[in-house]
User: Which sequence fits this backbone?
């Protein structure tokens, strides 16, 4: 076979990592570059590559959605897909496989691994997912602590207020030991004048809802809820957010598309009759689910997002309003702590730092002590 004519589409929003893949593969194959999932989907339909090598965490369209499209009814018959990601969690491998990936390779500066993976995949008819450099340990502890915030004060800057209604990860933990920061799971209120932004729908949102009902006293409430990811501790307060039940109130709810379907379907699934007495459709408020594909401009604020290093899809938010910047990086394991100190992990960590650069307030977890982190490595959370 003349491999020089075999077409490979390399997809990565990171120019450095994309060019590393391009350079190594273009010696043997015809290679085209795409800047993110959306760009790749458009190029793949006309160029029809035999193989797509794609990153997972990208703006506009993430790699899982791209996999689903390429292998779906409108996709390209026979196409092979390699997912390359800095994320080494079992959950991401499983999601990639379910979305249609043929192989999953953890990014490293050793590009020879990618080349050998490509050669193998293109020479075999059926290659089941063949992870390389993956942490294979199973995570039995479903109730992992995720994060807690270290500050419950309300910083104020030119009409800007931030209030923490829930600071815990995993599950609510009321009791004498959690009085200082409260026992509710993640929920943060950001006010910029009349603009209401809520980060996460953990159980803290229930008390926020009660406060809003009292404050607005029957007048319409409009709000924007941003959800970093849909693990329980970030959505379990949603059905208890009372303002959603009044037809006077309007809420936009933002995140990225789910790994295997719409973002809205995750919420409606969590309120199915087996789990909750009232379905999503039984909430009378005007609820609009928005799948983000780039920054959102809402009422004088710009909210952008970036994918984080956490099992499954997970994003952080950067809110720019009134000349101030608030960055929320909830669940994120520093790449170089998880994968070791190397060129790729340093580069990925620098990207996260850039995302948070210039923040007036950086909201970050501080879950583990150094000793605890040694035992909890690979669970998607961070040490002090
Ligand atoms: Zn999580």
Assistant:
């Amino acid at each position: 076979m003349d491999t020089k004519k075999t077409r490979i589409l390399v997809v990565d929003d990171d120019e450095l990592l994309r060019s590393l893949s391009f350079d190594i593969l273009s010696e043997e194959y015809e290679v085209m570059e795409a800047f993110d999932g959306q760009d790749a989907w458009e190029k793949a339909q006309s160029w029809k590559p035999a193989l797509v090598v794609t990153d997972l965490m990208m703006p506009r369209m993430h790699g899982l959605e791209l996999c689903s499209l390429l292998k779906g009814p409108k996709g390209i018959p026979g196409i092979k897909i390699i997912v390359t990601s800095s994320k080494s969690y079992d959950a991401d491998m499983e999601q990639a496989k379910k979305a249609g990936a043929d192989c999953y390779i953890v990014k490293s500066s050793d590009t020879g691994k990618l080349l050998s993976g490509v050669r193998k995949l293109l020479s075999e008819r059926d290659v089941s997912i063949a992870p390389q450099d993956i942490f294979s340990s199973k995570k039995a502890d479903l109730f992992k602590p995720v994060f807690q915030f270290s500050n419950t004060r309300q910083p104020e800057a030119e009409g800007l207020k931030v209030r923490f209604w829930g600071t815990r990860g995993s599950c609510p933990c009321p009791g004498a030991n959690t009085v200082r920061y409260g026992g509710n799971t993640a929920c943060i209120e950001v006010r910029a004048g009349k603009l209401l932004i809520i980060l996460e729908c953990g159980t803290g949102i229930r008390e926020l809802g009660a406060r809003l009902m009292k404050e607005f006293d029957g007048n319409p409430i409009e709000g924007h809820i941003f959800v970093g990811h849909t693990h329980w501790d970030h959505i379990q307060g949603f059905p208890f957010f009372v303002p959603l039940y009044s037809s006077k109130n309007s809420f936009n709810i933002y995140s990225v598309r789910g790994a295997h379907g719409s973002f809205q379907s995750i919420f409606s699934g969590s309120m199915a009759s087996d789990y909750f007495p009232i379905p999503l459709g039984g909430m009378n408020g005007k609820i609009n689910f928005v799948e983000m594909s780039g920054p959102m401009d809402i009422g004088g604020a710009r909210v952008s997002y970036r994918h984080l290093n956490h099992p499954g899809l997970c994003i952080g938010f950067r809110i720019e309003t009134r000349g101030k910047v608030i960055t929320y990086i909830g669940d994120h394991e520093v790449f170089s702590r998880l994968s070791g100190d190397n060129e790729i992990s340093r580069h990925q960590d620098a990207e996260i730092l850039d995302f948070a650069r210039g923040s007036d307030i950086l909201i970050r977890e501080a879950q583990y002590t150094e000793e605890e982190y040694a035992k909890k490595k690979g669970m998607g959370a961070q040490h002090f």
